[in-house]
Amino acid sequence: MKMSNLVFGSLSLLAALGLIYANLTLPSESLWFDLGYGNMPWAPPIIFAVVGIILLATSTKGESEMSEETPKPTPVIDPAKAALNKNLETAFWGLFLIMLGGQFLLKNANLPEGIWDVGIGLIFLGLNAARYFNGLKMSGFTTFLGILALVGGLAQMFFKFDLGGALLLIVLGAYLILKPWFDRQGLFGKAEES
């Protein structure tokens, strides 16, 4: 049983129930959720309920399969892949620190909002692209940060809209939904493993 899916699914359903109760008991003007089409106070409970149901449904999926399978073999670490990954990480973390230093150095320059976020997102996504094209597994953490930084920076540049925490929750939710597919594809993991 996947405990994280069980816990987060239960919490999502509790949040949905709380929002449904609030929608039924409070006046309609006291709850406001705007999706661009006016007040839609029923959207959050529906979203929480759907996410909760999906998470609860996937919490027991594969339970019988896991008990019949043989245990996974311990991964073999390839020294050449480990060295290549270390060189890539060093180079791209160096680029990240240069970008961060440039941001502090040019903080008074008249640059578009979000340009630094776009640069940092491209650096992190570039690291994972270099890993992928060299036959290494990508890092879910830096891919996640790269997507957040790139989309958030583009939203600030073109729409003058700071996504902040909303984007974090959307990308995290999408990652949780797509995680089984990522696991089957073997795209993410330790880069030095064969």
What would you say this structure looks like, in words?
- This protein is an all-alpha fold and 194 residues long.
- Helix content is 69%, strand content 0%.
- It is built from 7 helices and no strands.
- The two termini are 27 Å apart.
How would you summarize this macromolecular structure in one to three sentences?
This protein has helices at residues 3-25, 43-59, 63-68, 79-105, 115-133, 140-159, 164-185.
Mean pLDDT: 78
Radius of gyration, in Å, reads 21 Å
Instruction: Please count the helical segments.
Output: 7
Biggest sheet, in brief?
Answer: none
Core attributes:
single chain; 194 residues; mainly alpha; 2 domains; 69% helix
Helix and strand arrangement:
Elements: H1 3-25, H2 43-59, H3 63-68, H4 79-105, H5 115-133, H6 140-159, H7 164-185
Helix pairs in contact: 1-2, 4-5, 5-6, 6-7
